[in-house]
Amino acid sequence: MLSPELLHALHNLPLAAKQAAEGFLAGQHLSRRRGPGMEFSQYRPYQPGDDLRRLDWRLAARSDRYYIRESEVDTSLTVHLLLDASASMNHRDDNGLTKLEYGRLLLAALAYLAQQQGDAVSLSILHPQGLVHLPARADSRQLPRLYQALQNTAGTGRFPEAGQLAPLLARRQRALTVCVSDLYEEESEISTLLTRLRAVAGEVLLLHLMADNELRFSYRGSLTFEDLESGQTVQLNAEQERASYQQQLQEWLRTTAQAARRQGFDYHQLNILEPLDGALREFLRRRQATSF
Predict the structure, then answer these.
(1) In this protein, which residues make up the domain named DUF58 (predicted)?
(2) Which of 4, 189, 220, 280 has its C-alpha lying 20 to 30 A from 113's C-alpha?
């Protein structure tokens, strides 16, 4: 699995998405259900009300018993991808990659993977300039549209206000929603949106992006930190504040994960220094467990 910085260095989002996802396609199969499909699976005894067109008349003639041919048919679903494009996602890790750049790579790979699974994919980019939304489609032209929208995305401002997000909640199509965010919020605007989406659309997979230099607080000396959304600054000595910072961070991460799972989200924390395989694996697991 290529590192995220090497994938980003390709400067080719479609190629990077394919490189990141194709290793997971080997040995993976579309989720299946029993039904009148084309690929034969097994026989079962006839029951009143069964479609007689699925009756195996040759087997009935030989055995004097009636059996229905069951097949396996591909099941697909709608995958709704959400990208937090607020300014806090511009935080840069020691590998030179920002959270937003990692998020773009991740969602591009998930879109590629979902299309390979036969799913309809939509994309919503959340930033204060206005909601960018590409409706769900399963056709071959959808991926280029998604890639283009992701490539054109820049992190700016704060998370959008509730009024700007109303169109997302008006769509009541059942879907697996995948949200990529650093969960930087003033109050509870992100969790509120996801709670409402879960109520109207179904499952929510929440991928929480954290930079490695945030997790380890790998800074040295006296520094000035700036809030990327508010512009507020604070001066501190990294060595003196490291222990207190890490204690508070771990408490925040613990309560954030607990609150997300309590609200019914499938929550996973991701370190943007690490490859995308963990997120892709969680997506496949959730997709295969989801039935509409």
Answers:
(1) 42-249
(2) 189
